[in-house]
Every structure is written in C-alpha cells, then in structure tokens.
Amino acid sequence: MFAVSGGSGFIGSHLCNALAAAKGEKPICIDVRAPASAQQCIYKKADVRDLGALVGAIGGCETMFHLAAQVSVQKSIEDPKEDFEINAKGTQNCLEACRKNSVKTFVYASSAAIYGTPQYVPVDEKHPTLPLSPYGNSKLEGEKACEQYCRTYGMRTVCLRFFNVYGIGQSPSSPYSGVITKFSTRIKNNEPPVIFGSGSQTRDFVHVGDVVRACILASESKNSAGKAYNIGTGKETSVLGLATTMIKLSGRKLQPQFRPALEGEIEKSVAQIGLAKKDFGFSPKTSLEDGLRELL
C-alpha cells in the first residue's frame, strides 16, 4: 500500500491518480484539505505537524511519498518559524511515522531551491547547497533528515529535487504556481503575459506527468536509496522564449509586456539529470510544446 502526503495538492493529486492506475489500488491521501471528488485515493485528514495522526494514517503502508509542504518562498521569509515547522519538522514527523510503522521506502519531494544561485549550469547534484530563503533551507533540512533515517534505520529514502514543475491543475492563485500557469491564465483571458526584466532569465520547465513518473521510478529502484536526484528536463528555456511560444500556440495576437526586474531573481537555472537516468531510467517524455498545448 502507498501513502501520499500532500495528496490533495497539485503534484500529489496527479501522483495519487497515477499510482491507482499503475498499481491497481487507491493510495492513502494524507492532507489537511480534502481531495477533489474524482481523485483516486483513500483520504485521511492529518497535519504533518501531528506525529500521532501520521502514525495512525499510514498503518500498513510499504511506501510513502512525502509531498506536503509550505511552498511559498515569500511566506517563508515572512514566517520562517512556521515554514520550518511544516517543511523540516513535518518531514521528520513523516519519517518517524514511517519508522514506527516499518514503512520500507520514503520518497521526499525536495526542491532546486536548495541550491540557491547556480554557480554553474547545468546544475548537478554535487552543486553547493546555499539556499537563498528559509523555504530552501527547510527543504534542505528535510533532505538531511532523510539521509539520517537511511543511515541509522536502514530506511530506503530518496530525495527528488524538483525544478520548475507545471501542468493541469496548478492554480494561478497558488504561491506554488510558476510563470507558465500565470502566462496561460493571462493569454486565455486575451491579456498579454507580463515579463519582469528582459526575459533572458532561464528555467528548466518539467511537466507534472514526468515528475510523477520520476517519483514512481525512484520508489521502485534498488539503486536510489540514500541518494538525491535532480528532476527536470535538462533543457534551458528563456522566459521571453516561453512567452513567445505560448502566444504562438494560442493563436492570439498578443505582445509580452515588460516590467522592472525582480530583486534577487536567479538569472539561469537548468538541471543536469544524468544521475536519475543512470540509476532509475528517468528521462522526460513530455516536450514543452506538448505540455503547453494542454494548458492553452
């Protein structure tokens, strides 16, 4: 049996449905918010800050996917204590609940935010970890807890460092939403996408379906225990190029609008994904254009 913390969220809901389809049984969805009615899961309400509730929720599970998190960088700056309690201590609680229930495998959704400003690109897993925000720091602390439980208790922990995830179901009002969701919302409303700065800044945009597949592959691999992996596409896309492509695919006659650059924004970011391919056969299947067509 499988458990997915944060199973009602953007990535978690896709993962629950994929697990149900691939494994023939509904996973346990652990979240403070109930899932959508059509979601394939067994819902158990629990907060990752409540160890007792977690212990009771995952009884009988063999694998846990830990996606629950406080995901707003800005909110982490405003309230670093809550961010740490949810992300770092919440991860510790999930690991401890798994230990008490003899759960064998733990897949942790980490973030490229742990790297901070890239010192070189593409960013590989050996890149220094110098997070710029409390959010990045709390996700890094979660990785350290995973490493500790692997060494001390022999739990098969795997950390997946997600880059810029996008896809259907990502709310434009969510702090987790990236530039693709915001651009698609404006374009569908016949409004021009807004670019901060020149648009030369680059990102590695990875489709949620590929992220979900990486989660499942990592959980099944015999080579991944105790390791961390980048999950992206390995392809660099500029924000201006993204806006131009999305406008073209929409068939609308729009021109991007430019605003002053955001202070402290990372200029270039792209993942080196060779290790995930080597250890558990991950390679992205959804091209950026195909993924964008789903949203437009």
Q: Look at the helices and sheets and give the structural class.
A: alpha/beta
What is the H level of CATH, i.e. the homologous superfamily of the largest domain? NAD(P)-binding Rossmann-like Domain
What gyration radius follows from the Cα positions, in whole Å?
19 Å
CATH architectural arrangement of the largest domain: 3-Layer(aba) Sandwich
Number of helices: 10
Strand content: 15-25%
Sketch the topology as an H/E string, one letter per element.
Answer: EHEEHEHHEHEEHEEEHEEHEHH
- Please write the CATH class name of the largest domain: Alpha Beta
CATH topology of the largest domain: Rossmann fold
**Structural domain tally:** 2
Task: Please state the overall shape, judged from the principal axes of the Cα atoms.
Answer: globular
Question: Segments where pLDDT lies below 50 for 5+ residues?
Answer: none
Please state how the strands of the largest beta sheet are arranged side by side.
3-2-1-4-5-6-11
Strand runs, count: 13
Mean pLDDT score, rounded? Answer: 95
Biggest beta sheet summary: 7 strands, parallel
Helix content: 25-40%
General description of the model:
With 296 residues, this protein is of the alpha/beta class. It has two domains: 202 residues, Rossmann fold; 68 residues, UDP-galactose 4-epimerase, domain 1, CATH 3.90.25. The protein is 40% helix and 17% strand. It has ten helices and 13 strands. The strands form four sheets. A seven-stranded parallel sheet has the order 3-2-1-4-5-6-11, with helices on both faces. Strands 7-10 form a two-stranded parallel ribbon. The longest helix is centred in the N-terminal third of the chain and has 21 residues.
